[in-house]
Amino acid sequence: MFFHQDLKGNDLPPKTLCLTYDDGPGSETLDLSYYLYTEGICATFFVMGRHAAERGDVLVRLRTWGHHVGNHTYNHPGLVSLAEAGGDVVGEIARTDLLLRTHVPHAPVFFRAPYGNWRQKQPGTDQDRVVSIVAEVLNRSDQFLDYVGPVNWDISAADYDYWKRGASAEECAAAYLEKIGRAGQGIVLMHDSSEDPAMWPRNRTLQVTRQIVPVLKADGYRFVGLDEVPQIRAVLAAHNRVKV
């Protein structure tokens, strides 16, 4: 089921990180996932359905190398606006769900909303409402009872902004190391592709990951899978109790 509040990694122990990648699979997703595998790191790849539709082999390989494969909708819309307009919120998740069930059948499935867009704003403020219109729509459908989400993040250096302006992997890596050092722990957001095809050849996330992982390990950081994040582990435990 989907929660009204985001699931995050702020309860992880100090110097503990969970790596997540959005918007793939991209041209370097296989190389990225293999590098992480060789480093003993379980990452989560939140895939877009329209990118994954012809790349079922990549989804299989991600699971073979021990990574989690999550749902990031089919077309990457802002779900709040889509729900407000009466659009097909359920279909956005269901189309990608079908791909996941076909190529990497497993449950539960982790979900991340595009842009982290999940709740409407309180009128006249920048504060989110407590209740999510998106969660209400999806839960009413009864199609996603084994889903866990929305999974948010604690750390992002906005890698996509670096690719937009043609910045180097070194510059982006330095920004991630600084953000991670300040936060100390949490779920890290990066992007192994983009909803915008013009950005695909500019993506340097593989190089960024190769640069930051050795530095972080040398500094005493450890990496855990999304299923080891305390908030998410609690949801999974409850899910297993319900199944029993």
Would you kindly provide a written description of the structure presented here, covering whatever features stand out?
This protein has ten helices and eight strands. The longest helix has 15 residues, at 89-103. The chain has helices spanning 29-38, 49-52, 56-64, 79-84, 89-103, 133-141, 159-164, 169-183, 205-218, 230-243; strands spanning 2-7, 16-24, 44-47, 68-71, 109-110, 147-151, 186-191, 222-223. It is globular and about 45 Å long. With 244 residues, the chain is α/β, with parallel strands linked by helices. The strands form two sheets. Strands 2, 3, 4, 7 and 8 form a five-stranded parallel beta sheet that branches. It has a three-stranded parallel beta sheet with strand order 1-6-5. It has one domain: TIM Barrel, CATH 3.20.20.370.
The helix tally amounts to 10
Q: Biggest β-sheet: count, sense, barrel? A: 5 strands, parallel
Integer average pLDDT = 95
Helix content: 40-55%
Summed up, the domain count is 1
- Count of distinct strands: 8
Low-pLDDT parts are none
**Superfamily (CATH H level) name:** Glycoside hydrolase/deacetylase
Overall 3D shape:
globular
The CATH architecture would be Alpha-Beta Barrel
CATH topology: TIM Barrel
Evaluate the radius of gyration.
17 Å
**Percent of sequence in beta strands:** 15-25%
Order of SSEs, N→C? EEHEHHEHHEHEHHEHEH
Structural class: alpha/beta
Please write the CATH class name: Alpha Beta
State the separation between the terminal residues, measured CA to CA.
17 Å
